[in-house]
Amino acid sequence: MWISTVEGGELAVRFTAAALTAMRSHPEKELPHKIRRTRCPECGRLQLQWNPPGYFRDRVTVSCQFDDCDAELEQDAFEKVALIEERSRS
Questions:
Q1: Whether this model's pTM surpasses 0.70
Q2: Are 49 and 88 in the same domain?
Q3: On the CB side of 21, how many CA atoms lie within 13 Å of its CA?
Q4: Are residues 19 and 40 in the same domain?
Q5: How far apart are CA 47 and CA 72, in angstroms?
């Protein structure tokens, strides 16, 4: 009913634009992404990828994307490795 007027139509267009911007800025689901500042504890390369849970009660894993390395860490182990590396940079 509120879009039956010119002013209501303008508000609907602005609302839609704002909603689309918000959905792009705050996605519903986290996607896998590269970890930039922490090296793989196995091969020493900056090839780690954060893999968020795929379903409820799934776990976060961090895996090395280098072809010859099959390292995979759970979130707790990765956080320890990242903390050690952060301290060594300081």
A1: no
A2: yes
A3: 6
A4: no
A5: 11
pLDDT per position as a tens digit, 20-36: 999 888 878 888 999 99
Residue tagged 């893999």 (tokens): 51
Q: How confident is the model at residue 4 (pLDDT cuts 50, 70, 90)?
A: confident
Q: What is the 3 state secondary structure string of 53-88?
A: CCCCCCCCEEEECCCCCCCEEEHHHHHHHHHHHHHH
What total number of domains does the chain contain? 2
What pLDDT shows up at residue 90? Answer: 74
75 and 42 together in one domain: yes
* Two structure tokens written together for 77: 């182990």
Determine the structural domain holding residue 11 and report its residue range.
1-28
